[in-house]
């Protein structure tokens, strides 16, 4: 924590700006209590308290007249998992939870992952731009920087083992003013310090040769050859499947509701599907990670959710966009305003163009609603970068919520007061990039807490058993697959060229999620230009036939049925 | 590698009609269809109104399709079902197609192509519907598949966005199967469907039609629980303050059809922005020699009979050996016309009975259509009323004039 | 005076029919006169619908009336259709309800059911 004059200054600033708020200290952390009428004010109070650089800010200020929505859980209450014992219980199956699960599967431990949704990666992990960042703008003192550096060298080989795409296209930053040119040498110094390959400076002429669609405003650019994109949900599904293949169990639709903590240890974790008895708990619960920490009586941080909206453009817009990730340089004052790098226009690993994200504070932890003003704002924001893409190119849009702490950094540490919890929380960008490195450290922490080396899983299979989308294979391989199984030659999703065989396979994988969206995320059926208009009913039919599920129990997502009744169920009532 | 004179891609009504006509030519013809049965979208269009001109009967979609398919049975053409065109490239001796089938991958060569690839539906995200992403939002065609092929209802209480024919047809179908249609909302000031459908599908069941309104937001996390509708201004922009919440469990989207021309674009066939289909001459030949377009891929028609007709025109034209360069004159049209098909006249092709289709740009009454070539009046027709949703068809004879520099269609008010 | 829009052809003539004299005005052809009279006395429509089958590969088969029936009997016809389950292959045009509700009109299938 800071001391002396700086401490006094912040404390007096706090007292004058938030006279009704109680700021207290306990065991190295700052606690804020009270009530305010405006959510933005609550966030500002948190940021101000964070400047004290304590061990963490626990912001318990209430918002007047606001009743926090109940956390969404599956409409199931039973005892399916009651009495389960395990060595490690991972809470949350986003990229962090699944990366940790996969890392733990290398050891002979009884590991369980609980996830409240019916599939992995349904929150931030599937709602992002898939960028593997180089992190040139990260302060080297942060955990964000530390874990990014640790993870980047591991990423490509991890993707190879998982058999998921890793597309290295590099990152291009555009600069609007010639006067910033001398700063380029500073950037390369920053790059060198962070072990990032130096960027090439491109003058306007070279810029136009490489990326002819960049706007007039871009006077020159800096191209960093490292930097890649992955398909985020595909990667998380692969991590989960690989973990399952190596012995980890995933309990879906299972939400942690409370915990029993005795003598500084979690002894029991209560879920909607029974009580679980873990020796260690890993908190990878995203926007709910502070709540989990509180249940474990170990909350030293607070999540203030920050929402962002992104849009996906038709593959045809590629010709008017760029072949690399492009963004416009934002000065540090601009970045401080909303704590994001500003996003950009990114060619995704699947061949679409993604534009985004926006950033705004919200008290809601899982409200993924989009709005038209945000899409307009996106295009306005990036208009100077690539002026030839337009809202008419948009085929779909989505929202994500960052699990930001007031320190704006990751929380990767063992419990302060509760001895058997390990936090992998406060994950925001570059969370996707930092996942492999974080997973390795979490396992190290567990080993340290155990006091002895963890037993190795001698049967660990390094490569995940998975196929590639057939449409991407060479003809000879594809032909032989079809000869073995004619269903691979029967195209069902014609926009993305996905076969019946691949859809059926998706229903027999290590983690079966028999919903339209679950199939979509695994094989891309429904992600093309018609957005499932043709193949949606066909996939529903396949799920019905293949798994013998009645139509009324087949959902699009979560617990949303597609079919409400059969055509001859109700009578027509003459008006 | 097997070679064909003509390959028809798409076995819906356009492709089938093209195949029947082409089979008369004794050339090597192949009809490719990605589904297990021919018929295209007609298989799920169980309502009637098909075949009024082609069969002088009021048939349902499946009947119309089966009648057409039966004519194919006696022909010599080869049909490949469950066959998907994965790649198509132009080579020196024609077009090489990569076909994916249950037996493997097959390469074939075609001298000429007839593209009968139909159309797809516009999605909710393409009309800026925001909010959550729940189950219960379906395009009308998807809902129609669930109801008419699988016998399942994806709704109990629905709002329909779009007063085009397919939305109106679904309004009736849903009501007859015991569902409730709260209302049909149309963003334009005028309804989009055929008048007979407005009467038979909405008035008959007291289903209200709201004009100048659109759905802007949906609610419900896993399943739709309601929608927000708003009034729009003349530019079709939602007016702040007019938000209205409607409780429902389903939103059916009937917000437009988009011709499917991925293959045409791959082959650099120029597309007409007005129709979203290729530019074609009176023989349905696109601006790329040897590639023909027909059916809804060419322009979205209102009735299957006209779709079949364009298939026949394409096949007739494709069956003729080419005699060197075409002589194309583009058809111009005035502001009262939305588009004319064909977009060009080829003066090396037959000119005496040219079939032209056009749509008016607005609902107009007491109009006269004039076809003028280099200032000479070729044809004039009076119309008591014209509406954009009701496509008009006429014959034009350009055989008695020297090749003109300009051809113009104009729709004007009768003096 | 009742206002009726004729749906026989795309002209969609706006007709007026006197409810006492049955005099029709606004028509462009004789079909309009007949249509307006029928609409006033006993509106008739064709009905298209579906019936269940026992076949998983073809769960329902589409049907229609082979002529127009009075709107007033549509609810009864729909009720009758709900009771039917087709359990054998049928060619297109097969009669599944003969002379429905004594109307002289049959319900016929409009798709061939091959029972595969």
Structure explained in plain terms:
The complex is a heterotrimer of chains A (575), B (415) and C (116). With 575 residues, chain A is of the alpha/beta class. Chain A has four domains: 4-63, Alpha-Beta Plaits (2-Layer Sandwich), CATH 3.30.70; 84-124 and 233-302 and 408-450, FAD/NAD(P)-binding domain (3-Layer(bba) Sandwich); 171-225 and 305-405, D-Amino Acid Oxidase, Chain A, domain 2; 471-574. In chain A, strands 6, 7, 14, 15, 16, 17, 24 and 25 form an eight-stranded mixed beta sheet that branches. In chain A, strands 18, 20, 21, 22 and 23 form a five-stranded antiparallel beta sheet that branches. In chain A, a hairpin with a 6-residue loop joins strand 24 and strand 25 (421-425). The termini of chain A are far apart. By secondary structure, chain B is of the alpha/beta class. Chain B has seven helices and 31 strands. Chain B has helices at residues 13-23, 61-73, 140-148, 165-176, 195-202, 262-266, 304-318, and strands spanning 2-9, 29-32, 48-50, 59-60, 78-80, 84-91, 94-101, 104-115, 119-121, 130-131, 137-139, 152-153, 157-161, 180-186, 209-211, 213-219, 226-231, 244-247, 250-253, 257-259, 271-272, 277-278, 291-293, 328-333, 337-341, 344-346, 354-360, 364-373, 376-386, 392-396, 407-413. In chain B, strands 1, 2, 5, 6, 7, 8 and 23 form a seven-stranded mixed beta sheet that branches. In chain B, a hairpin with a 2-residue loop joins strand 28 and strand 29. The mean pLDDT of chain B is 95. Chain C is 19% helix and 29% strand. At the B-C interface, strand 4, helix 2 and helix 5 of B face strand 5 and strand 6 of C.
What is the third-level CATH name, the topology of the largest domain in chain B? FAD/NAD(P)-binding domain
Oligomer: heterotrimer
Q: What is the count of β-strands of chain B? A: 31
**Structural class category of chain B:** alpha/beta
List unreliable stretches of 5+ residues of chain B.
Answer: none
Biggest sheet statistics of chain B: 7 strands, mixed
Percent strand of chain B: 35-45%
Task: Specify the number of helices of chain B.
Answer: 7
Counting structural domains of chain A, the number is 4
Task: Return the average pLDDT of chain B rounded to an integer.
Answer: 95
Number of domains of chain B: 3
Share of helix among residues of chain A? 25-40%
Percentage of residues in strands of chain A: 15-25%
What general form of chain A does the structure show? globular
Give me the CATH architecture of the largest domain in chain A, please.
Answer: 2-Layer Sandwich
Tell me, what is the CATH class of the largest domain in chain A? Alpha Beta
Rg calc of chain B: 22 Å
CATH class of the largest domain in chain B: Alpha Beta
Q: Can you tell me the CATH superfamily of the largest domain in chain A?
A: D-Amino Acid Oxidase, subunit A, domain 2
């Amino acid at each position: 924590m800071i001391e002396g004059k700086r401490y006094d200054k912040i404390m007096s600033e706090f007292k004058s700006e938030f006279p009704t708020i109680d700021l207290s200290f306990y065991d190295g952390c700052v606690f804020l209590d009270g009530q305010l009428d405006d959510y933005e004010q609550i966030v500002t109070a948190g940021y101000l308290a964070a400047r004290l650089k304590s061990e963490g800010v626990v912001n318990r200020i209430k918002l007047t007249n606001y009743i926090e929505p109940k956390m969404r859980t599956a409409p199931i209450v039973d005892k399916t998992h009651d009495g389960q014992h395990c060595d490690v219980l991972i809470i949350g199956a986003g990229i962090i939870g699944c990366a940790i699960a996969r890392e733990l599967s290398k050891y002979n431990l009884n590991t369980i992952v609980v996830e409240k949704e019916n599939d992995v990666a349904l929150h931030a992990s599937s709602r992002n731009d898939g960028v593997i960042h180089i992190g040139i703008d990260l302060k080297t003192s942060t955990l964000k920087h530390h874990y990014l550096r640790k993870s980047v060298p591991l990423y490509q080989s991890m993707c190879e083992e998982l058999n998921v795409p890793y597309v290295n296209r590099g990152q291009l930053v555009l600069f609007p003013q010639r006067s910033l040119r001398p700063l380029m040498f500073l950037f390369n110094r920053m790059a060198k310090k962070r072990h990032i390959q130096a960027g090439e400076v491109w003058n306007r002429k070279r810029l136009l040769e490489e990326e002819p669609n960049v706007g007039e405003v871009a006077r020159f650019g800096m191209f960093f050859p490292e930097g890649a994109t992955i398909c985020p949900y595909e990667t998380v599904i692969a991590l989960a499947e690989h973990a399952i293949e190596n012995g980890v169990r995933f309990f879906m639709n299972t939400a942690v509701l409370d915990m029993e903590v005795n003598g500084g240890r979690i002894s029991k974790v209560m879920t909607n599907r029974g009580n679980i008895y873990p020796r260690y708990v890993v908190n990878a619960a995203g926007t709910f990670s502070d709540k989990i920490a509180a249940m474990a009586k170990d909350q030293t941080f607070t999540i203030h959710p920050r929402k962002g909206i992104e849009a996906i453009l038709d593959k045809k817009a590629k010709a008017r966009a760029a072949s690399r990730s492009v963004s416009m340089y934002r000065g540090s004052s601009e970045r401080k305003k909303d704590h994001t790098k500003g996003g950009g226009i990114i060619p995704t690993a699947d061949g679409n163009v993604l534009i985004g994200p926006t950033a705004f504070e919200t008290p809601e932890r899982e409200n993924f609603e989009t709005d038209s003003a945000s899409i307009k704002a996106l295009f306005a924001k990036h208009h100077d970068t690539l002026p030839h893409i337009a809202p008419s190119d948009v085929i779909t849009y989505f929202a994500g919520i960052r699990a930001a702490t007031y320190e704006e950094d990751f929380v990767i540490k063992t419990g302060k007061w509760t001895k058997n919890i390990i936090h992998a929380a406060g994950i925001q960008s570059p969370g996707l990039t930092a996942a492999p490195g974080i997973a390795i450290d979490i396992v190290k922490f567990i080993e340290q807490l155990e006091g002895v080396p963890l037993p190795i899983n001698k049967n660990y299979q390094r490569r995940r058993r998975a196929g590639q989308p057939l449409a991407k294979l060479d003809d000879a391989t594809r032909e032989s697959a079809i000869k073995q199984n004619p269903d691979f030659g029967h195209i069902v999703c014609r926009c993305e060229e996905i076969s019946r065989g691949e859809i059926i396979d998706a229903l027999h994988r290590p983690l079966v999620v028999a919903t339209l969206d679950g199939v979509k995320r695994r094989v891309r059926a429904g992600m093309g230009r018609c957005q499932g208009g043709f193949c949606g009913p066909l996939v529903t039919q396949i799920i019905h036939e293949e798994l013998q599920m009645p139509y009324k129990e087949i959902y699009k997502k979560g617990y949303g049925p597609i079919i409400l009744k059969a055509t001859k169920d109700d009578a027509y009532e003459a008006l | 590698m097997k070679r064909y004179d003509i390959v028809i891609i798409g076995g819906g009504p356009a492709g089938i009609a093209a195949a029947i006509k082409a089979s008369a030519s004794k050339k090597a013809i192949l009809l490719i269809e990605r589904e297990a049965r021919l018929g295209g979208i007609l298989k799920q269009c169980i309502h009637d109104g098909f075949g009024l001109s082609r069969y002088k009967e009021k048939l349902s979609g499946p009947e119309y399709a089966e009648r057409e398919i039966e004519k194919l049975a006696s022909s010599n053409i080869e049909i490949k079902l469950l066959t998907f065109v994965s790649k198509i490239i132009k080579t020196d001796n024609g077009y090489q197609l990569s076909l994916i089938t249950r037996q493997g991958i097959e390469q074939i060569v075609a001298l000429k192509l007839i593209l009968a690839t139909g159309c797809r539906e516009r999605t909710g995200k393409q009309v800026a519907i925001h909010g959550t992403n729940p189950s219960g939002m379906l395009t009308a065609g998807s809902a129609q598949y669930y109801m008419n092929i699988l016998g399942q209802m994806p709704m109990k209480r629905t709002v329909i966005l779009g007063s085009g024919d397919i939305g109106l047809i679904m309004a009736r179908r849903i009501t007859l199967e015991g569902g409730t249609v709260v209302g049909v909302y149309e963003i334009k000031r005028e309804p989009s469907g055929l008048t007979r459908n407005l009467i038979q599908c909405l008035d008959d069941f007291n289903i209200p039609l709201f004009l100048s309104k659109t759905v802007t937001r949906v609610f419900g996390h896993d399943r739709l629980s309601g929608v927000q509708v708003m009034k729009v201004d003349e530019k079709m922009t939602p007016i702040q303050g007019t938000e209205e919440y409607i409780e429902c469990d389903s939103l059916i989207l009937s917000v437009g059809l988009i011709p499917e021309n991925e293959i045409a674009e791959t082959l650099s066939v120029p597309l007409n922005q007005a129709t979203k289909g290729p530019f074609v001459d009176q023989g349905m030949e696109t601006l790329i020699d040897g590639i023909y377009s027909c059916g809804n891929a060419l322009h979205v028609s209102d009735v299957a009979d006209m779709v079949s007709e364009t298939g026949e025109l394409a096949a007739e034209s494709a069956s003729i050996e080419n005699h060197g360069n075409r002589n194309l004159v583009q058809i111009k049209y005035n502001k009262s016309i939305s588009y004319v098909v064909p977009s060009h006249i080829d003066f090396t092709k037959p000119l005496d009975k040219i079939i032209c289709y056009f749509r008016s740009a607005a609902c107009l009454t007491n109009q006269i259509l004039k076809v003028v070539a280099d200032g000479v009046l070729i044809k004039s027709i009076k119309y008591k009323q014209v509406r954009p949703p009701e496509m008009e068809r006429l014959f034009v004879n350009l055989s008695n004039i020297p090749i003109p520099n300009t051809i113009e269609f104009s729709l004007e008010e009768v003096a | 005076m009742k206002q009726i829009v004729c749906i026989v052809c795309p002209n969609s003539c706006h007709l007026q029919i006197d409810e006492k004299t049955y005099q029709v005005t606004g028509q462009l052809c004789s079909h309009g006169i007949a249509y307006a009279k029928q609409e006033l006395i006993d509106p008739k429509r064709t009905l298209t619908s579906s019936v269940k089958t026992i076949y998983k590969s073809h769960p329902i088969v589409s049907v229609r009336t082979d002529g127009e029936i009075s709107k007033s009997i549509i609810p009864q016809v729909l009720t009758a259709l709900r009771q039917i389950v087709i359990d054998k292959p049928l060619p297109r045009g097969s009669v599944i309800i003969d002379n429905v509700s004594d109307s002289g009109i049959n319900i016929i299938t409009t798709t061939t059911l091959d029972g595969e």
